[in-house]
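Protocol step 4 of 6: structure prediction from sequence.
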Amino acid sequence: MSFAEAIAAQPAWIGIWLKVLFAGGFVLPLALFIWRETRLAALFAVLGNVVNMFGVQWLFAKLGYVKLLGLPHILMWGPLVVYLVVLARRPTTRVWPRRVIWVIVTILSISLAFDIVDVLRWVLGERAAFELPT
């Protein structure tokens, strides 16, 4: 089973969430290229997402559909969220980029909450692959 097939076999709410995550975590950061003060953040987000994509695919190929798949998100998005929060709180950051940043931070933080729980469960011994309907 491919990673895409494993995702497609999940409940409908997961598919909806992944679309929100794609929009907020992958597409919306591209808007940060518009403003000079957020271009570095946009670059970090894009590069982090590329690393995430390869990291998740690599883990899936090695271990299957397990809870550890959230680890690349934690490693890439954790520092990115901290950086974005610092950037959004700067008085020199304009209103619209700040709004975009807060939407990105909100979406990535929700994802990170799921990822942290899943990775901790994996570390604590819950290493079986997710049950997928056949």
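Step 5 (inspection) to follow. The chain has a mean pLDDT of 93.
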